[in-house]
Design goal:
Elements: H1 7-12, E1 18-20, E2 25-27, H2 31-39, H3 49-63, H4 70-76
Antiparallel strand pairs: 1-2
Helix pairs in contact: 2-3, 3-4
Length: 78
Amino acid sequence: MSDILNTAERRELPSDMYGLPERREYPMPDAAHVRAAESYFRYCPEDLKPKLARAILRFAKEYGVDVESPTILSYASE
């Protein structure tokens, strides 16, 4: 899978592969997309940041990605 998902690839992903499954936003099918979700975290609506932060950490653990962002770690503990 490439670093960029096209529309068809995004459509094929199950909802549980997204950081915000109900909105189908922040897909994380691999380590590269976990890092992308980290970098786009600041654009997430404030009320959804804790949920996204926990999803990023869950996927990061699954793919062996180290998340060191104090912002994400802080929101994940809320």
